[in-house]
Amino acid sequence: MTQKHDESFLDNPVWHSLNGPLKRFAQTPKSDRLLTFDPEMSPFSGVEMSRVGGAEGCWAAIAEDVGLEGFCGLFRDEIPVRPAGWEDHFEGVCLQMVAGDLAPVLDVAIDALGSKDAGAALELATLTEPGPFAARTTELGRFVGVRRNGRLMAMAGERFRIPGFVEISGVCTHPDARGEGLGAALTLAVARSIRAGGDEAFLHVLDDNENAIRLYRKLGFTVRRKVDVVFAQWHGEEWTPSEEA
After folding, report:
1. pLDDT tens for residues 212-233?
2. With contact defined as beta carbons under 8 Å apart, do 119 and 138 qualify?
3. Domain locations in the chain as residue ranges
4. Same fold for the domain at 7-93+228-239 and the one at 97-226?
5. In b/e form, how buried is each residue of 210-245, taking b as 16+ CB within 10 angstroms?
6. Fewer beta carbons within 10 angstroms: which end of the chain, N or C?
7. Average confidence score pLDDT of the chain
8. Fold of 97-226
9. What pLDDT was estimated at residue 60?
10. Region 208-215 average pLDDT
């Protein structure tokens, strides 16, 4: 890395994004204990344990804020186990990787993507499933892509932004162009752009995605830590899964 930044912000990237550089996109359901993105941008919310009574009070506070049948998507260092009344829609572990000595730039023609490309970006993300991606995700940062005959074949961009760091996200390639190194080229392009702006690049990858992890290591990213990701819905204290069957 070209300079040292405070890595503690990386432990809770959603909270620090919505309390910092992406504050203009923050919504508060009922209080400032839970900050959320507009769902057309991202499904994630941020919570700071010291504001919700620690791990024991976390989900009770979230339930109060989202309300009955409300959803919450958390993405941070450690997420407490959900108590009765919560239905898990997804639970996983990601590796958080930070850019180090980046590989050389790859010779690929890359285009900047703008607002007119939002539909094509969503279509590509829906096809390839690089992770949560919504209609307005491209508004969160700079996105770049590779086009062929006017068709978007690959893309990568920026999502979470915290003091000193910007996350690379939405990296995906159309099945017709896989194996050509487009994702690698775009990841490097975004990482170098972030570094040129004075920040450092980081990204997340599911811990069982061995091919992607191998690629990111080859590009110059190193694992910093594991982070939890959970999507859950609050049904109320009396709810049990059997009652929903």
Report:
1. 999 999 999 999 999 999 999 9
2. no
3. 7-93+228-239, 97-226
4. yes
5. eebbebbeebbbeeeeebebbbbbbbeeebeeeeee
6. C
7. 94
8. Aminopeptidase (3.40.630)
9. 94
10. 97
pTM score > 0.90 for this model? yes
Instruction: Using alpha carbons, select from 124, 112, 120 the residue that is nearest to residue 158.
Output: 112
Topology classification of domain 7-93+228-239: Aminopeptidase (3.40.630)
pLDDT for residue 169:
98
Give residue 196's Cα distance to chain centre.
21
Confidence of residue 53 (pLDDT cuts 50, 70, 90): confident
DSSP result, 70-122: -EEEEEES--PPP-TTEEEEEEEEEEEEEE-SPPPPP----EEE-GGGHHHHH
Sheet holding 111-113, edge to edge: 26-27, 34-37, 45-47, 71-76, 221-234, 86-99, 200-206, 165-173, 151-162, 143-148, 111-113
Packed helices 210-219 and 182-196: angle between N→C axes, nearest 10 degrees: 50
Question: Cα 39 to the chain's mean position, in Å?
Answer: 13
Beta-strand pair 165-173/200-206:
parallel
CA distance 29 to 47: 12
Both tokens of 173, joined, read: 């390639």
